[in-house]
Amino acid sequence: MAFSDSPIGTVVFSTVGRCFYGFDIFSVSLAAVEERRLTDGKSINFNGNFADDDQALVFISERSGSPRIYLTRPGSNSADPTPLPSAPGSLFHDRPILRDGKLFFVSAHEPSDLLYKSWSAVYSAEIGGGDDVITRLTPKGVVDYSPAISFSGELMAVASYGSKPWGGEIHELDSDIVVFPVSDPTKRTVLAKRGGWPTWAGDSTVFFHRESDDGWWSIYRVNYPGESSKSPSRVTPPGLHAFTPAAFQDGKRIAVATRRKDSDFRHIEIFDVESGKFQPITKFLNPEIHHYNPFVSAGSDFLGYHRFRGESAQGDSIIPNLEPVLSPIKTLNMLRLNGSFPAFSPEGDLIAYNQDFDSNPGVTIVKSDGSKRWKLIKDRVAFYNSWSPADKNVIFTSIGGIFQPANSTVQIARITFDASKLDPHRSDIPNVDIKILTKESTGNNGFPACSPDGRSI
């Protein structure tokens, strides 16, 4: 794209649930099962791995406006974690591993050769060498996720999507477990079809998760080098979901995230492969908080995971109305909205949006710098907003349940407000006029768009 053709302006968008994540990384000592927070409460911090048995941590944080890789050490005098080498121009990094001075990670900075094909690939970088050379380990044209390093550091396992474009699946990606030597990434072996999130026990056993034929997500085991006549063996039983395994190096235990029929929350448990018994870890620490993506220290002394840090925990606690996000185009600003269906006013000074569809439904407007917001409609489910380009301070919206069947009643409403009543000391606007434009008998009418002259929608 030539510079003269670069778009100029601001894009406001939503990321479902992102504003409420509040992730920090925690660990427990398996000798005492006492929880300790390893990250500092800034932004969101997730997908960590221990760098050594002193609980030095390599992890992903979005504190810079995009997911980047950081290193932090318990007891460090530095107030902030250390940024680690990243791929130039990359706006997405994930699943970092730091082993013997070499960093392995996922990045998505090299464009794919097909539409609807992921840019995700695995890379490595030497730490402390001074040149920060980034080496691609995934072959060109191939998509890899979730790298895992064997105990010796000589072998890598990945969940590979191969060279195909995305097939539209969401619930379970059509990826395979692939193994290759770190010294020669071209020598790839498909160890198991249909699998994700691999983890090594030693240099000869790989655990991974997949959805079983009975509908339960389970952990499977396969040996390396594999035998073509042997299928992966199921490790965790039916009756509960088990995800994202992290193996202990003795090969006898794996840490997993579970969802049980009697719980609404995802918890970390340790599964004994030989006895078939589970040991709950986080259920009694934080029973009503989800816990994600366990990882185990090399000496098997510590178990880590990420979770919501808690409303009273030290750290970022205020959700901004608008959050700056790094843009791939320097002339284009990007802002993440705490809400849905944003629409700029014709003057660009206000944004109309829907803050929530359950606990706080209605229509809200916010200053385009995010400094102040006001409620126009309260306690009524509304979605999708469109400003009149011809009439001052007029917004059209949909009143009724979102994404309902055609015979459900959803009505178009015209909202008119007085901009002179935007009091910085109030959260609402008095005397807002709401006029319903469609009859209940006409069924489902949504997603209004106003004509340039303001006469038709």
TrEMBL record:
<protein>
    <submittedName>
        <fullName>Uncharacterized protein</fullName>
    </submittedName>
</protein>
<dbReference type="InterPro" id="IPR011042">
    <property type="entry name" value="6-blade_b-propeller_TolB-like"/>
</dbReference>
<dbReference type="InterPro" id="IPR011659">
    <property type="entry name" value="WD40"/>
</dbReference>
<dbReference type="Pfam" id="PF07676">
    <property type="entry name" value="PD40"/>
</dbReference>
